[in-house]
Amino acid sequence: MSQFVLSGFGDEIAEDLSTQLSVMAENHIHCLEIRSVNGKPIVEHTPAEAKKIKEQLDAAGFRVSSLGSPIGKIGIRDDFRKHLELFRRALEIAKILDAPFFRLFSFYIPEGEKPEKYRGEVMERMDRLCAEAKGFGIRLLHENELGIYGDTPERCLDLMETLGYDRIGAVFDPANFINLKQRVEIYPYAWHLLKKYVDYMHIKDAVHVSDPLHNHHEIRPAGYGDGRIADILRELEESGYRGFLSVEPHLGSFSGFEKLERRIVDETMPKGGPKTFTVAARALQDLIAQVEKGKSEKQ
User: Fold this and answer.
1) Do 32 and 21 contact (CB within 8 A), yes or no?
2) With bands split at pLDDT 50, 70 and 90, how would you rate the model's confidence at 190?
3) If you write DSSP's letter for every residue of 175-211 in order, what string do you get?
4) Pairing of strands 205-208, 217-220
5) How far is CA 161 from CA 18, 108, 131, 158, 168, in A?
């Protein structure tokens, strides 16, 4: 039995929640990182709507692993007071949904400017978010994302050390680090720098590409990119990690995808979101099986 608990972003399957849950269940996943439901971001739902969503999740045997919020995905110069109000409402939604984790970001830095110039303002805002969340029983998690203050491993570490692990943890997303313009060694460097702060994993792989439009990676299923996800899973298992691995497909067309797709899923599966989610989920499940097989062979 795997010690990992699989979750995923169901809104990459379909807009409506019923389809999200059906496809996830077919892939033996019964946890949802809830980001968007019925075409609307979860943070924009009313408390009454959130209660209905919770009832639907309960009836289908699902639980929420994390609220995939957009908090902190605004410019550092944008109005924080309005954003803070959204955060407060989102915390209430997370509480209704019984979400143990709440994903957020550390604010976009103006293009061409040094992130360090805005460090003080970033830390003030993040400190305020941590303070607002106190008492909710929900753990905040910062995700590395291209263009925000915490997009490099070093600045993610700065956030964790400054804010304190007792107040906030980290989501580790290998593909988002690969999207940096400057190449980053995901494993062992970035992983070992941050692993003691990591409470949650986003699973998508990628390869680095040169792109003048500021997208420096192409997404791959787990194990088919440069994210060294199998090595990270081995270390997680050895450390006794019993947390979530959240499937975030983001898959598009790339050379060899059709061949890979045919190998992982059958032709009868609906195209689009259901198929790409299944490709991503099964690639991760294959990696987990390999890690567990390797462990058993050593014993």
Assistant:
1) yes
2) very high
3) HHHHTSSS---IIIIIHHHHGGGEEEEEE-EEEE---
4) antiparallel
5) 41, 20, 16, 5, 10
As given in the structure block, the two tokens for residue 148 are: 């925000």
Domain 5-298 is found in CATH 3.40.50.150: no
| Cα–Cα distance, 287 to 289 (Å, whole number) | 5
Question: How many angstroms separate the Cα of 137 from the Cα of each of 62, 133, 220?
Answer: 20, 8, 35
Q: What is the tens place of the pLDDT at every residue in 100-147?
A: 999 999 999 999 999 999 999 999 999 999 999 999 999 999 999 999
Look at the block and give the residue holding tokens 């899973």: 233
Token pair for 59: 């009836």
Tokens of 283: 């690639």
For 37, residues 6+ apart whose C-beta sits below 8 A from its C-beta are 11, 15, 17, 20, 45, 53
232, two tokens: 């990270």
Assessment of whether the complete model's pTM goes beyond 0.85 = yes
| Residues contacting residue 219 through CB under 8 Å, at least 6 positions apart | 175, 204, 205, 206, 225, 249, 250, 251, 252, 254
Q: Where are the domains of the chain?
A: 5-298
Report phi then psi at 133, rounded to 5.
Answer: -80, -10
- Pair 5, 237: CB distance under 8 Å: no
Quote the CA–CA distance of 274 and 171 in Å, as a whole number.
Answer: 25
Task: Report yes or no: 197 and 159 within 8 Å, Cβ to Cβ.
Answer: no
Place of tokens 């995808």: 257
